[in-house]
Amino acid sequence: MDAARTISATKPSKTKKRKRRIRVVRIGAQPGSQEKFLSSTADIVFYGGEAGSSKTSGLVLEGMRCYDVKGAGGIIFRRTSPQLEGPGSLWELMREWYPPLGARLTQNPFRAVFPSGASLQLGHLQHEADKESHQGKGYSLIGFDELPHFTETQFWYLYSRCRSTSGVKSYIRATMNPDPESWVKKMILWWLDERGEYARPERSGVIRYFYRIGDVLEWADTPEELTARFPEMVDDEGKTIPPTSFTFILGRLADNKILLKQDPGYRARLMSLPLVERERLLGKGAGGNWRIKPAAGLYFRRGWFRVIERAPSDLIVVVRGWDKAATQVTNESPDPAWTRGVKMGVTREGRFVVLHIESLRGSPGQVLKVMANTASQDGKRVKILVWQDPAQAGKVDVTLTKSLLAGYRVESEVAREDKLVYAGPFSTQVEAGNVDIVEGPWNDEFFAELEAFPDGKHKDIVDACSRAFMGLHKAAVVAYQTAMHNVAQELGVA
Question: Which of 200, 318, 407, 429 has its CA 20 to 30 A from that of 251?
Protein backbone atom coordinates (compact mmCIF):
# COMPACT_ATOMS: atom_id res chain seq x y z
CA MET A 1 0.00 0.00 0.00
CA ASP A 2 1.38 3.41 -0.93
CA ALA A 3 -1.26 5.64 0.66
CA ALA A 4 -2.33 6.18 4.24
CA ARG A 5 -5.37 4.00 4.89
CA THR A 6 -7.53 3.26 7.92
CA ILE A 7 -10.54 1.00 8.31
CA SER A 8 -13.30 1.08 10.92
CA ALA A 9 -16.56 -0.82 11.25
CA THR A 10 -19.62 -1.03 13.48
CA LYS A 11 -19.94 -4.11 15.65
CA PRO A 12 -23.04 -6.29 15.26
CA SER A 13 -25.54 -5.78 18.08
CA LYS A 14 -26.37 -8.57 20.52
CA THR A 15 -30.09 -8.32 19.75
CA LYS A 16 -31.85 -10.57 17.30
CA LYS A 17 -31.88 -7.76 14.76
CA ARG A 18 -28.30 -7.46 13.71
CA LYS A 19 -27.17 -4.14 12.33
CA ARG A 20 -25.74 -4.15 8.84
CA ARG A 21 -21.99 -4.08 9.09
CA ILE A 22 -20.59 -0.78 7.81
CA ARG A 23 -17.08 -0.65 6.50
CA VAL A 24 -15.50 2.78 6.42
CA VAL A 25 -12.28 3.25 4.47
CA ARG A 26 -10.24 6.43 4.77
CA ILE A 27 -7.52 6.91 2.19
CA GLY A 28 -5.15 9.84 2.14
CA ALA A 29 -1.67 10.98 1.25
CA GLN A 30 1.36 9.88 3.20
CA PRO A 31 3.25 12.73 4.89
CA GLY A 32 6.26 13.99 2.99
CA SER A 33 6.73 14.05 -0.77
CA GLN A 34 3.37 12.47 -1.67
CA GLU A 35 1.49 14.98 0.46
CA LYS A 36 3.47 17.82 -1.11
CA PHE A 37 2.63 16.49 -4.59
CA LEU A 38 -1.09 16.35 -3.87
CA SER A 39 -1.22 19.75 -2.22
CA SER A 40 0.59 21.74 -4.93
CA THR A 41 -1.44 24.43 -6.70
CA ALA A 42 0.79 24.60 -9.80
CA ASP A 43 -0.71 24.05 -13.26
CA ILE A 44 1.92 21.40 -13.99
CA VAL A 45 3.60 19.28 -11.32
CA PHE A 46 6.37 16.78 -12.01
CA TYR A 47 6.86 14.25 -9.20
CA GLY A 48 10.15 12.41 -9.60
CA GLY A 49 12.88 10.65 -7.74
CA GLU A 50 13.62 7.33 -6.15
CA ALA A 51 11.80 4.10 -6.93
CA GLY A 52 9.16 3.27 -4.36
CA SER A 53 8.42 6.89 -3.43
CA SER A 54 4.64 6.36 -3.93
CA LYS A 55 4.46 8.24 -7.23
CA THR A 56 1.94 6.01 -9.05
CA SER A 57 -0.40 5.89 -6.06
CA GLY A 58 -0.14 9.67 -5.88
CA LEU A 59 -1.62 9.90 -9.38
CA VAL A 60 -4.48 7.58 -8.43
CA LEU A 61 -5.20 9.68 -5.36
CA GLU A 62 -5.14 12.79 -7.54
CA GLY A 63 -7.79 11.19 -9.75
CA MET A 64 -10.19 11.15 -6.78
CA ARG A 65 -9.96 14.89 -6.13
CA CYS A 66 -12.97 15.96 -8.20
CA TYR A 67 -15.07 12.81 -7.86
CA ASP A 68 -18.11 14.88 -6.74
CA VAL A 69 -17.87 17.55 -9.46
CA LYS A 70 -20.30 17.00 -12.30
CA GLY A 71 -18.60 17.06 -15.66
CA ALA A 72 -15.06 16.71 -14.30
CA GLY A 73 -13.18 14.30 -16.50
CA GLY A 74 -9.60 13.12 -16.19
CA ILE A 75 -7.24 10.72 -17.93
CA ILE A 76 -3.97 9.12 -16.82
CA PHE A 77 -1.56 7.66 -19.36
CA ARG A 78 1.05 4.93 -19.45
CA ARG A 79 3.06 4.55 -22.64
CA THR A 80 1.70 1.06 -23.46
CA SER A 81 -1.60 -0.59 -22.54
CA PRO A 82 -0.07 -3.65 -20.76
CA GLN A 83 1.48 -1.24 -18.24
CA LEU A 84 -1.96 -0.07 -17.13
CA GLU A 85 -2.86 -3.24 -15.25
CA GLY A 86 -1.22 -5.79 -13.00
CA PRO A 87 -0.09 -5.81 -9.35
CA GLY A 88 0.55 -2.29 -8.05
CA SER A 89 -0.68 -0.73 -11.31
CA LEU A 90 -2.92 2.28 -11.84
CA TRP A 91 -5.89 0.04 -12.55
CA GLU A 92 -5.42 -2.20 -9.51
CA LEU A 93 -5.26 0.83 -7.21
CA MET A 94 -8.35 2.33 -8.83
CA ARG A 95 -10.22 -0.94 -8.32
CA GLU A 96 -9.35 -0.88 -4.63
CA TRP A 97 -9.84 2.80 -3.80
CA TYR A 98 -12.59 4.12 -6.08
CA PRO A 99 -15.60 1.84 -5.33
CA PRO A 100 -16.00 3.18 -1.74
CA LEU A 101 -16.76 6.54 -3.39
CA GLY A 102 -19.52 4.91 -5.42
CA ALA A 103 -17.51 4.59 -8.63
CA ARG A 104 -18.68 2.22 -11.32
CA LEU A 105 -15.67 0.65 -13.04
CA THR A 106 -15.41 -0.74 -16.55
CA GLN A 107 -12.42 -2.53 -18.00
CA ASN A 108 -12.82 -1.87 -21.71
CA PRO A 109 -11.87 0.90 -21.61
CA PHE A 110 -10.37 1.26 -18.13
CA ARG A 111 -12.72 3.84 -16.67
CA ALA A 112 -14.30 4.91 -13.38
CA VAL A 113 -17.55 6.89 -13.32
CA PHE A 114 -18.67 8.42 -10.03
CA PRO A 115 -22.30 9.09 -9.01
CA SER A 116 -21.80 12.81 -9.74
CA GLY A 117 -20.97 12.02 -13.35
CA ALA A 118 -17.28 12.80 -12.85
CA SER A 119 -14.99 10.25 -14.48
CA LEU A 120 -11.39 9.13 -14.74
CA GLN A 121 -10.04 6.87 -17.44
CA LEU A 122 -6.73 5.25 -18.26
CA GLY A 123 -5.12 5.49 -21.67
CA HIS A 124 -1.92 4.78 -23.56
CA LEU A 125 0.18 6.52 -26.21
CA GLN A 126 2.24 3.64 -27.55
CA HIS A 127 2.69 5.25 -30.95
CA GLU A 128 3.36 8.90 -31.70
CA ALA A 129 0.17 9.17 -33.73
CA ASP A 130 -1.95 7.94 -30.81
CA LYS A 131 -2.04 11.49 -29.48
CA GLU A 132 -4.25 12.47 -32.41
CA SER A 133 -7.08 10.32 -31.05
CA HIS A 134 -7.56 12.97 -28.33
CA GLN A 135 -8.15 15.76 -30.82
CA GLY A 136 -11.27 17.72 -29.88
CA LYS A 137 -11.38 16.33 -26.36
CA GLY A 138 -10.91 18.21 -23.12
CA TYR A 139 -9.80 16.97 -19.69
CA SER A 140 -9.72 18.66 -16.30
CA LEU A 141 -6.85 16.39 -15.23
CA ILE A 142 -4.20 14.82 -17.44
CA GLY A 143 -1.70 12.52 -15.75
CA PHE A 144 1.41 10.78 -17.07
CA ASP A 145 2.93 7.85 -15.18
CA GLU A 146 6.67 7.54 -16.01
CA LEU A 147 6.75 10.67 -18.16
CA PRO A 148 10.23 10.04 -19.69
CA HIS A 149 8.68 7.13 -21.59
CA PHE A 150 6.59 9.63 -23.58
CA THR A 151 7.83 11.96 -26.29
CA GLU A 152 7.98 15.70 -25.78
CA THR A 153 5.51 16.24 -28.61
CA GLN A 154 3.02 13.83 -27.01
CA PHE A 155 3.20 15.74 -23.74
CA TRP A 156 2.67 19.18 -25.23
CA TYR A 157 -0.09 18.02 -27.55
CA LEU A 158 -2.00 16.52 -24.61
CA TYR A 159 -1.36 19.71 -22.66
CA SER A 160 -3.41 21.49 -25.31
CA ARG A 161 -6.28 19.10 -24.46
CA CYS A 162 -6.16 20.25 -20.83
CA ARG A 163 -9.41 22.22 -20.67
CA SER A 164 -12.69 21.91 -18.81
CA THR A 165 -16.13 23.50 -18.53
CA SER A 166 -16.88 21.82 -15.19
CA GLY A 167 -15.60 24.74 -13.13
CA VAL A 168 -12.45 22.83 -12.21
CA LYS A 169 -9.20 24.49 -13.25
CA SER A 170 -7.47 22.08 -15.61
CA TYR A 171 -4.03 20.83 -14.66
CA ILE A 172 -1.26 18.33 -15.42
CA ARG A 173 0.37 15.84 -13.06
CA ALA A 174 3.28 13.56 -14.05
CA THR A 175 5.57 11.08 -12.32
CA MET A 176 9.02 9.86 -13.25
CA ASN A 177 12.27 8.18 -12.30
CA PRO A 178 15.48 10.00 -13.27
CA ASP A 179 16.48 9.68 -16.92
CA PRO A 180 19.41 11.84 -18.08
CA GLU A 181 18.61 11.26 -21.75
CA SER A 182 14.99 12.40 -21.48
CA TRP A 183 13.58 15.75 -22.56
CA VAL A 184 12.08 15.92 -19.06
CA LYS A 185 15.43 16.86 -17.55
CA LYS A 186 15.42 20.14 -19.48
CA MET A 187 12.19 21.07 -17.73
CA ILE A 188 13.53 20.58 -14.21
CA LEU A 189 17.12 21.86 -14.47
CA TRP A 190 16.42 24.74 -12.05
CA TRP A 191 15.39 22.18 -9.41
CA LEU A 192 18.65 20.20 -9.80
CA ASP A 193 22.12 20.96 -8.46
CA GLU A 194 24.82 22.68 -10.53
CA ARG A 195 25.96 19.36 -12.01
CA GLY A 196 22.43 18.42 -13.03
CA GLU A 197 22.85 15.32 -10.90
CA TYR A 198 20.65 15.40 -7.80
CA ALA A 199 17.54 17.41 -6.93
CA ARG A 200 17.91 20.31 -4.49
CA PRO A 201 15.67 19.48 -1.51
CA GLU A 202 15.18 23.17 -0.69
CA ARG A 203 13.70 23.79 -4.14
CA SER A 204 11.32 20.83 -4.12
CA GLY A 205 7.82 22.22 -4.54
CA VAL A 206 8.91 25.78 -5.34
CA ILE A 207 6.64 27.14 -8.08
CA ARG A 208 8.03 28.96 -11.11
CA TYR A 209 6.32 30.31 -14.22
CA PHE A 210 6.86 30.10 -17.97
CA TYR A 211 5.66 31.27 -21.35
CA ARG A 212 6.38 29.35 -24.51
CA ILE A 213 7.85 31.88 -26.93
CA GLY A 214 8.31 30.13 -30.24
CA ASP A 215 9.96 26.84 -29.30
CA VAL A 216 11.62 28.18 -26.15
CA LEU A 217 10.28 28.13 -22.60
CA GLU A 218 10.95 31.48 -20.93
CA TRP A 219 11.06 31.18 -17.11
CA ALA A 220 10.60 33.57 -14.21
CA ASP A 221 10.18 33.36 -10.45
CA THR A 222 6.92 35.32 -10.48
CA PRO A 223 4.11 35.83 -12.99
CA GLU A 224 4.56 39.60 -12.73
CA GLU A 225 8.18 39.32 -13.84
CA LEU A 226 7.19 37.24 -16.83
CA THR A 227 4.30 39.42 -17.98
CA ALA A 228 6.54 42.50 -17.70
CA ARG A 229 9.14 40.87 -19.96
CA PHE A 230 6.56 39.76 -22.52
CA PRO A 231 3.81 42.40 -22.67
CA GLU A 232 2.77 41.05 -26.08
CA MET A 233 1.27 37.96 -24.39
CA VAL A 234 -2.36 39.09 -24.55
CA ASP A 235 -5.57 37.52 -25.87
CA ASP A 236 -7.93 38.84 -28.54
CA GLU A 237 -9.52 41.17 -25.99
CA GLY A 238 -6.18 42.63 -24.96
CA LYS A 239 -6.15 40.83 -21.60
CA THR A 240 -2.87 39.44 -20.29
CA ILE A 241 -2.54 35.69 -20.76
CA PRO A 242 -1.59 34.17 -17.39
CA PRO A 243 1.73 32.29 -17.54
CA THR A 244 1.81 28.60 -16.71
CA SER A 245 2.87 27.67 -13.19
CA PHE A 246 5.18 24.69 -12.79
CA THR A 247 7.03 22.84 -10.04
CA PHE A 248 9.04 19.70 -9.41
CA ILE A 249 8.51 17.55 -6.30
CA LEU A 250 11.40 15.40 -5.09
CA GLY A 251 10.24 11.86 -4.29
CA ARG A 252 12.06 9.78 -1.68
CA LEU A 253 11.67 6.13 -0.77
CA ALA A 254 12.13 7.07 2.91
CA ASP A 255 8.78 8.92 2.78
CA ASN A 256 6.92 5.73 1.86
CA LYS A 257 6.68 4.38 5.41
CA ILE A 258 3.95 1.92 4.49
CA LEU A 259 5.99 0.20 1.77
CA LEU A 260 9.11 0.02 3.92
CA LYS A 261 7.12 -1.51 6.77
CA GLN A 262 5.35 -4.07 4.61
CA ASP A 263 8.41 -4.90 2.48
CA PRO A 264 11.56 -4.08 4.49
CA GLY A 265 13.77 -5.81 1.91
CA TYR A 266 12.79 -3.45 -0.92
CA ARG A 267 15.65 -1.02 -0.35
CA ALA A 268 18.15 -3.89 -0.28
CA ARG A 269 16.89 -5.12 -3.64
CA LEU A 270 17.37 -1.66 -5.12
CA MET A 271 20.90 -1.60 -3.72
CA SER A 272 21.65 -4.89 -5.49
CA LEU A 273 21.07 -3.33 -8.93
CA PRO A 274 24.01 -2.51 -11.23
CA LEU A 275 25.64 0.84 -10.50
CA VAL A 276 23.89 2.89 -13.18
CA GLU A 277 20.39 1.64 -12.38
CA ARG A 278 21.05 1.80 -8.64
CA GLU A 279 22.07 5.45 -8.90
CA ARG A 280 19.04 6.34 -10.99
CA LEU A 281 16.48 4.54 -8.83
CA LEU A 282 18.02 5.17 -5.42
CA GLY A 283 20.85 7.66 -5.79
CA LYS A 284 22.24 7.41 -2.26
CA GLY A 285 18.93 8.52 -0.80
CA ALA A 286 19.14 11.87 -2.61
CA GLY A 287 16.18 11.37 -4.94
CA GLY A 288 17.90 9.54 -7.77
CA ASN A 289 20.73 10.54 -10.09
CA TRP A 290 19.70 12.60 -13.15
CA ARG A 291 23.21 12.68 -14.63
CA ILE A 292 24.61 9.16 -14.62
CA LYS A 293 24.68 7.33 -17.96
CA PRO A 294 26.06 3.98 -19.08
CA ALA A 295 29.76 4.62 -19.63
CA ALA A 296 33.08 2.82 -19.64
CA GLY A 297 34.17 1.89 -16.13
CA LEU A 298 30.69 2.00 -14.62
CA TYR A 299 29.76 -1.61 -15.33
CA PHE A 300 33.11 -3.39 -14.95
CA ARG A 301 36.50 -2.56 -13.49
CA ARG A 302 39.61 -4.70 -13.31
CA GLY A 303 39.94 -4.09 -9.58
CA TRP A 304 36.52 -5.59 -8.90
CA PHE A 305 37.75 -9.06 -9.94
CA ARG A 306 39.91 -11.37 -7.86
CA VAL A 307 42.55 -13.14 -9.98
CA ILE A 308 43.27 -16.73 -8.88
CA GLU A 309 45.99 -19.14 -10.07
CA ARG A 310 43.81 -22.16 -10.80
CA ALA A 311 40.19 -23.24 -10.96
CA PRO A 312 38.60 -24.11 -7.61
CA SER A 313 37.97 -27.76 -6.84
CA ASP A 314 34.48 -27.18 -5.45
CA LEU A 315 32.67 -25.96 -8.56
CA ILE A 316 29.11 -27.27 -8.44
CA VAL A 317 27.98 -26.07 -11.88
CA VAL A 318 30.00 -25.18 -14.99
CA VAL A 319 28.68 -23.71 -18.26
CA ARG A 320 30.08 -22.17 -21.42
CA GLY A 321 28.20 -19.24 -22.88
CA TRP A 322 28.69 -18.40 -26.55
CA ASP A 323 28.21 -15.18 -28.45
CA LYS A 324 28.46 -16.16 -32.11
CA ALA A 325 29.59 -13.95 -34.98
CA ALA A 326 30.21 -15.62 -38.32
CA THR A 327 32.68 -12.99 -39.52
CA GLN A 328 36.14 -13.06 -41.07
CA VAL A 329 38.85 -10.43 -41.44
CA THR A 330 38.74 -8.84 -44.90
CA ASN A 331 40.02 -5.68 -46.53
CA GLU A 332 36.54 -4.20 -46.22
CA SER A 333 36.19 -5.36 -42.60
CA PRO A 334 39.62 -5.43 -40.91
CA ASP A 335 38.22 -5.53 -37.35
CA PRO A 336 34.97 -7.54 -37.36
CA ALA A 337 33.10 -8.98 -34.40
CA TRP A 338 34.46 -12.02 -32.58
CA THR A 339 32.90 -15.32 -31.66
CA ARG A 340 33.52 -15.76 -27.94
CA GLY A 341 32.89 -18.71 -25.68
CA VAL A 342 33.15 -17.92 -21.95
CA LYS A 343 33.49 -20.84 -19.57
CA MET A 344 32.16 -19.98 -16.12
CA GLY A 345 31.40 -21.86 -12.92
CA VAL A 346 30.04 -21.32 -9.43
CA THR A 347 31.49 -22.71 -6.19
CA ARG A 348 29.68 -24.20 -3.22
CA GLU A 349 30.21 -20.91 -1.41
CA GLY A 350 28.45 -19.03 -4.20
CA ARG A 351 31.47 -17.40 -5.84
CA PHE A 352 31.41 -17.12 -9.62
CA VAL A 353 34.56 -17.99 -11.55
CA VAL A 354 35.52 -17.10 -15.14
CA LEU A 355 37.57 -20.14 -16.16
CA HIS A 356 38.47 -19.67 -19.82
CA ILE A 357 37.61 -17.84 -23.05
CA GLU A 358 37.63 -19.36 -26.53
CA SER A 359 37.88 -16.79 -29.33
CA LEU A 360 37.86 -16.85 -33.12
CA ARG A 361 36.88 -15.01 -36.26
CA GLY A 362 35.68 -17.34 -38.93
CA SER A 363 32.98 -18.58 -41.27
CA PRO A 364 29.78 -20.23 -39.93
CA GLY A 365 31.29 -23.63 -40.57
CA GLN A 366 34.52 -22.77 -38.76
CA VAL A 367 32.58 -21.40 -35.79
CA LEU A 368 30.54 -24.58 -35.43
CA LYS A 369 33.68 -26.72 -35.76
CA VAL A 370 35.42 -24.80 -32.95
CA MET A 371 32.30 -25.02 -30.79
CA ALA A 372 32.22 -28.80 -31.27
CA ASN A 373 35.94 -29.16 -30.47
CA THR A 374 35.57 -26.96 -27.39
CA ALA A 375 32.57 -29.01 -26.21
CA SER A 376 34.62 -32.16 -26.57
CA GLN A 377 37.42 -30.67 -24.44
CA ASP A 378 35.02 -29.30 -21.81
CA GLY A 379 33.15 -32.57 -21.48
CA LYS A 380 29.45 -33.33 -21.29
CA ARG A 381 29.24 -32.03 -17.73
CA VAL A 382 29.55 -28.47 -19.08
CA LYS A 383 26.26 -27.08 -20.42
CA ILE A 384 26.47 -25.08 -23.67
CA LEU A 385 24.50 -21.82 -23.75
CA VAL A 386 23.85 -19.74 -26.87
CA TRP A 387 21.98 -16.60 -27.82
CA GLN A 388 19.17 -16.84 -30.36
CA ASP A 389 18.33 -14.00 -32.71
CA PRO A 390 14.59 -13.16 -32.49
CA ALA A 391 14.19 -13.41 -36.28
CA GLN A 392 13.44 -16.66 -38.13
CA ALA A 393 17.10 -17.04 -39.09
CA GLY A 394 17.91 -17.27 -35.38
CA LYS A 395 15.67 -20.33 -35.00
CA VAL A 396 17.36 -22.01 -37.95
CA ASP A 397 20.82 -21.24 -36.55
CA VAL A 398 19.98 -22.66 -33.13
CA THR A 399 18.44 -25.78 -34.64
CA LEU A 400 21.61 -26.36 -36.69
CA THR A 401 23.85 -25.75 -33.68
CA LYS A 402 21.94 -28.23 -31.52
CA SER A 403 22.01 -30.89 -34.24
CA LEU A 404 25.79 -30.58 -34.70
CA LEU A 405 26.30 -30.69 -30.93
CA ALA A 406 24.07 -33.71 -30.43
CA GLY A 407 24.97 -35.50 -27.22
CA TYR A 408 25.69 -32.26 -25.36
CA ARG A 409 23.29 -30.16 -23.33
CA VAL A 410 22.60 -27.05 -25.41
CA GLU A 411 20.20 -24.30 -24.33
CA SER A 412 19.23 -21.15 -26.22
CA GLU A 413 17.89 -17.81 -25.04
CA VAL A 414 16.11 -15.38 -27.36
CA ALA A 415 17.91 -12.02 -27.19
CA ARG A 416 15.01 -9.58 -26.88
CA GLU A 417 16.54 -6.97 -24.55
CA ASP A 418 19.36 -4.46 -24.84
CA LYS A 419 22.89 -5.65 -24.08
CA LEU A 420 22.94 -3.39 -21.01
CA VAL A 421 19.96 -5.23 -19.55
CA TYR A 422 21.60 -8.63 -19.92
CA ALA A 423 24.96 -7.38 -18.61
CA GLY A 424 23.38 -5.92 -15.47
CA PRO A 425 23.15 -9.03 -13.24
CA PHE A 426 26.74 -10.07 -14.00
CA SER A 427 27.94 -6.49 -13.44
CA THR A 428 26.24 -6.45 -10.02
CA GLN A 429 28.12 -9.56 -8.89
CA VAL A 430 31.42 -8.23 -10.26
CA GLU A 431 31.01 -4.92 -8.44
CA ALA A 432 30.18 -6.79 -5.23
CA GLY A 433 33.50 -8.65 -5.50
CA ASN A 434 31.86 -12.03 -6.00
CA VAL A 435 33.59 -12.96 -9.27
CA ASP A 436 37.02 -14.57 -9.65
CA ILE A 437 39.01 -14.98 -12.85
CA VAL A 438 41.54 -17.75 -13.46
CA GLU A 439 44.93 -16.34 -14.44
CA GLY A 440 45.64 -16.78 -18.15
CA PRO A 441 47.05 -15.09 -21.28
CA TRP A 442 43.53 -13.97 -22.25
CA ASN A 443 43.03 -11.89 -19.08
CA ASP A 444 44.21 -8.55 -20.47
CA GLU A 445 41.91 -8.76 -23.47
CA PHE A 446 39.07 -9.77 -21.16
CA PHE A 447 39.59 -6.81 -18.81
CA ALA A 448 40.10 -4.33 -21.65
CA GLU A 449 36.77 -5.14 -23.30
CA LEU A 450 34.80 -5.25 -20.06
CA GLU A 451 36.20 -1.94 -18.80
CA ALA A 452 35.36 -0.28 -22.14
CA PHE A 453 31.75 -1.52 -22.02
CA PRO A 454 29.38 -0.17 -23.26
CA ASP A 455 31.42 2.47 -25.16
CA GLY A 456 33.94 0.10 -26.74
CA LYS A 457 33.57 -1.18 -30.27
CA HIS A 458 33.49 -4.85 -29.29
CA LYS A 459 31.04 -6.28 -26.75
CA ASP A 460 31.37 -9.96 -27.64
CA ILE A 461 33.07 -11.00 -24.38
CA VAL A 462 30.44 -9.16 -22.34
CA ASP A 463 27.62 -10.80 -24.29
CA ALA A 464 29.16 -14.24 -23.78
CA CYS A 465 29.61 -13.52 -20.06
CA SER A 466 25.99 -12.39 -19.82
CA ARG A 467 24.76 -15.61 -21.42
CA ALA A 468 26.98 -17.77 -19.25
CA PHE A 469 25.99 -15.98 -16.06
CA MET A 470 22.28 -16.16 -16.90
CA GLY A 471 22.39 -19.93 -17.34
CA LEU A 472 24.82 -20.42 -14.48
CA HIS A 473 22.62 -18.58 -12.02
CA LYS A 474 19.57 -20.64 -12.98
CA ALA A 475 21.53 -23.89 -12.76
CA ALA A 476 23.07 -22.89 -9.42
CA VAL A 477 19.63 -22.26 -7.93
CA VAL A 478 18.42 -25.65 -9.08
CA ALA A 479 21.58 -27.34 -7.75
CA TYR A 480 21.20 -25.61 -4.38
CA GLN A 481 17.54 -26.63 -4.10
CA THR A 482 18.42 -30.21 -5.01
CA ALA A 483 21.20 -30.29 -2.42
CA MET A 484 18.89 -28.95 0.29
CA HIS A 485 16.27 -31.54 -0.65
CA ASN A 486 18.85 -34.34 -0.38
CA VAL A 487 19.95 -33.09 3.03
CA ALA A 488 16.35 -32.94 4.17
CA GLN A 489 15.80 -36.51 3.01
CA GLU A 490 18.86 -37.70 4.92
CA LEU A 491 17.51 -36.00 8.04
CA GLY A 492 14.08 -37.50 7.46
CA VAL A 493 12.27 -34.17 7.18
CA ALA A 494 11.60 -34.12 3.42
Answer: 429
The DSSP H or E segment spanning 123 is strand 119-124
Q: Which of 22-26, 27-31, 199-203, 426-430 has the lowest mean pLDDT?
A: 22-26
Beta bridge partners of 345: 318, 353
Average pLDDT over residues 470-488: 70
Q: How far apart are CA 289 and CA 51, in angstroms?
A: 11
Q: Is 247 exposed, middle or buried (0-12, 13-18, 19+ CB in 10 A)?
A: buried
Cβ atoms 221, 245 nearer than 8 A: no
Round to whole Å and give the CA distance between 324 and 362: 10
The Cα–Cα gap between 65 and 194 comes to: 36
E strand or H helix that includes residue 49 = strand 44-49
Q: Which CATH number is correct for 302-485, 3.20.20.70, 3.40.50.20, 3.30.750.24, 3.30.420.320?
A: 3.30.420.320
Burial class (CB in 10 A: 0-12, 13-18, 19+), 124: middle
pTM: 0.75
Question: Each residue of 137-164: pLDDT tens digit?
Answer: 999 999 999 999 999 999 999 999 999 8
